[in-house]
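Subject: sequence -> structure tokens, single chain

Hey, anyone have a minute? Need the predicted structure for the following. Not urgent.
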Amino acid sequence: MACMFVLESVWRPAAPAARVWSVLADSRFTWPDWWPGLTADSTRPVVGPDGLAAPGAWARLRVRSPLGYALRFRLDLTQAAAPSDGEPGRARLDVSGDLAGLAQVTVSGVSTGSTSERSTSESSTGGSSTEVLLVWQVSPVPAWFRATSRLAPGPLAWAHTRVMRTGERGLAARLRE
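Reply:
Had a minute. Here:
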């Protein structure tokens, strides 16, 4: 099945890359704790030597769309490398279920300028922030979803953007805890 959608989201939480990575790569898969509308139906944690999720981990998820439907899909972590020595962290996940394809996450540290230019939230993070690039290369699987995506791709892309913005706000709140 050819990839029908390439959906990119960029999140910019005001926290160091290592802290952001530790929340995203939590081996207990706590995303549903801070991402409204996301539910984990089942998970299989695999813990790496750093205590974070490692290849072989998976989560079966359900996400509510602002358009009224729910998608069910599974994410299988196939590659993970934490950010270190200025190199970004990278994760690759296979996607199956109502969506088929892959998702890639890149977590990069970003300098926020001199001390006089920093906001209060940036100062509390030591003047660092992070850029999280999330790229989904997926095709819809159910017949109704394939047909809808051909007839009305705009509303589906809008719904994806809304769901991802909700996740970004939830992550920012979790990082402030």
